[in-house]
Amino acid sequence: MHRLIVATLPILFLTACATPDAVTQAAPTSASPAQPAASQWLTDVRTISDAGENAQRRQAIATRLDALDLTWRKAPFEANGKAGENLIADVAGPADAPLLLIGAHSDRVAVGHGATDNASGSASVLALAERFQRQPLKHHRVAVAFWDLEEEGLLGSKAFVADGSTKPALYVNFDVFGWGDTLWMMAPAQGQSALVDSSRAATQALSLGFSPGEKYPPTDHLPFLRAGWPAVSYSLVGAEEITLVLDAYAGKKSHTPAKVMRVIHSDQDVLGQVDAQAAVRGVDAVERALRDWDGNAVTNAPAATSTTTTSESGR
Q: Which site from 11, 58, 169, 245 is most exposed, i.e. has the minimal number of CB atoms within 10 Å?
């Protein structure tokens, strides 16, 4: 998640603890062989978070996309004097169908391993790519994106939106999706009620908590919304964390900040914090919600045109 000051909310999300208390790590972090989805998710988080710098993290994602036999491309950009590189992969669906774009930022800050922020989100996107490749949606084509330089000001997603040649019917973002019992959904007050309803039904079916609303940390859904493009974002956290996070946004100090505020952007952002079993339940819920949304043929934009910007093929 990005360190950002938003006009309507004082952002203390990443700075509430100058000296973070020790955070109890999730246990266990391994999944049994009987739960291959959790095992694969954990493997992806480990591979990305252990890769090193941002370029190596992207290479780890690209290697996984190759293993899935997905066609992907590099989309380089420059912004604010910085050079970055997004990865975009086509998953399934007719080229003329409305586009469902699912994404997460792949970069991390210099401290920690970026396991929660945001290898967890990237691994969740990879999990959905595999599922929608195996069983495509009926009314939408699916692509996935991995944004660079989110931590520098949402630069990768901003570059994609600024290009303007591929407008999705919906963008679905993942950021901080590593533990907890509650699916936290950033949903605008207008325009995404059908997906909110589908998400609520999916979480109820899986006995997960659900918390939709407009107040949510700044991340890669924002450039889409600011351009008037439909977008939502999902996180998976503990139910008790949401109020603490929103209190921090409102400038209220807490004696015991939310776990996520103590983990991300710190040396405690390591693999031991994530809970693969919980994360896969969250992925299951989002998959169910998106299939229900697609099955109802909810479209908010015309079919997207193919991007023609300079890019480097990954396959």
A: 11
Which residues partner with 170 through β-bridges?
Answer: 100
Residue 281 in this model has a pLDDT that exceeds 50 = yes
Identify the architecture of domain 36-313 in CATH.
3-Layer(aba) Sandwich (3.40)
Six-digit token pair at 106? Answer: 């792949």
Residue whose C-alpha is closest to residue 260's, from 282, 280, 235: 235
Q: How many CA atoms lie within 13 A of 278 on its CB side?
A: 23
Mind listing the pLDDT tens digit for each residue in 121-138? 999 999 999 999 999 999
**Quick one: angle between helices 36-49 and 276-295, nearest 10?**
110
| Strand partners of residue 185 | 212, 234
What pLDDT, in 10s, does the model give residues 76-93?
999 999 999 999 999 999
Range 234-258 average pLDDT: 89
**Six token digits for residue 83:** 């050079």
- Pairing of β 231-237 and β 170-177: parallel
Q: pLDDT tens digit string along 25-40?
A: 554 444 443 489 999 9
Residue with tokens 């590099």: 74
Calpha distance 108→59 (Å, rounded): 14
DSSP track, 81-125: TEEEEEEEEEEES-TTSPEEEEEEE----SSS--IIIIIHHHHHH
Tokens representing 45? 């988080």
User: What is the tens place of the pLDDT at every residue in 187-239?
Assistant: 998 889 999 999 999 999 999 999 999 999 999 999 999 999 999 999 999 99
Backbone angles phi, psi at 278, to 5 degrees: -65, -45
Structure tokens at 58: 């992207």
At 5-28, the pLDDT tens digits run 333 333 333 333 333 344 545 544
In the numeric block, which tokens belong to residue 187? 């949903």
The closest of 283, 281, 236, 243 to 117, measured between CA atoms, is 236
Residues 6+ apart with CB under 8 A from 76: 83, 84, 85, 86, 310, 311, 312
